[in-house]
Amino acid sequence: MSAAPPGGRRRRWRGDTLALRLFLLMWAALVLSHVAAWSTVRLLAGPPPGAFESTRPPPRAGDEARRPPPRGEPPTPTFPSLPPPLPGGLWVIDYGVRFVIIALAAWWGSRWLAQPVTRLVGAAERLGPALAQGRQPAPLDERHGTAEVRSAATVFNRMAQQLREVFEGRGLMMAAISHDLRTPLTRLRMRLETTPLEAQFQRRSVADLAEMNALIDAVLEVFRGSAGGAAPQQVDVAALLQALVDDRAEQGEPVALRPGPEGAAPTVLATEPLALRRIVDNLVGNALRYAGATEVVLQATAEAVEVQVLDRGPGIPEADLAAVMQPFVRLESSRNRATGGAGLGLFIARELAQRLGGALTLGPRAGGGLQAVLRLPRRP
Prior knowledge:
Blueprint: H1 6-14, H2 18-45, H3 88-132, H4 147-194, H5 199-226, E1 233-236, H6 237-250, E2 255-258, E3 268-271, H7 273-291, E4 294-300, E5 304-310, H8 345-355, E6 359-364, E7 370-377
Parallel strand pairs: 2-4
Antiparallel strand pairs: 1-3, 4-5, 5-7, 6-7
Helix pairs in contact: 2-3, 3-4, 4-5, 5-8, 6-7, 7-8
């Protein structure tokens, strides 16, 4: 690694850099602390004894004052007298003043140093929602601050612009997938249905095309789910779950809702209703597919609202709980292609839960089966 040229070092020290500002701040704090401590102690101690008294008579006019010492006696050198030592209490005041000034300088300097980092954190927090809603992220100021702060702002703004271009390109890719893949699949299905073929071959071919269409739908749902949604609004989670269970019951599916105890915390939560319904609907559909029946449990506390989807199906081995949350993962021991699905339901539910600021966890249910827990913290 080559060393930086001397000219580059000089430019860094001459420019408005963080190192130069820290150096000047600490130097000024040390000088100010010494001056303030010395002035305070001298003011409290008063003048030294005899400061206003003469220790010897003034010399007489004429040559008497300049007369040399007697012969044979060496001249006696004279030195200025040292100031008297400070009393013990003044030493405490001296160090106390220095400590207070240096501590104040360090406190102010730390807050001053944290300001650019705070602005960077705020910009990073606003970047995600802006990209999700298709808005231009607010840029950081690249003209003010030290050289390091300006450089970080430039890099962040460039990164935000690149991410925005990636998100826009992904939207175009979604439209291309929807059009360019569905069109030939539709033509193939029409040919298979209109061409005289063996019934079993025709049926299997149409089923394969339907599975490919379902896979495309699942992939597009992943893209739509991570692209952001509507602004949060106050949602009664109990009413939303009841409506979902009623819709399933109308289709003859065995889904039960167990609400929280009487007098518990309110179930109203600031969230996205469509995203929340998609999460629970995916979990309920997953449980019905592999267990045949499911139960939805709602629990609310002062900190969060928790939705549990319970089933008595074959469950998932604990070693595979993390893997099954990944896209296109299906456990053939308990879940196979005959049950349908592309291995994206749990992945979509987890992504939506994270977008809502919550978490989705899976675990074995006591007595057998699977327990999916969606926890949504209350927003301030």
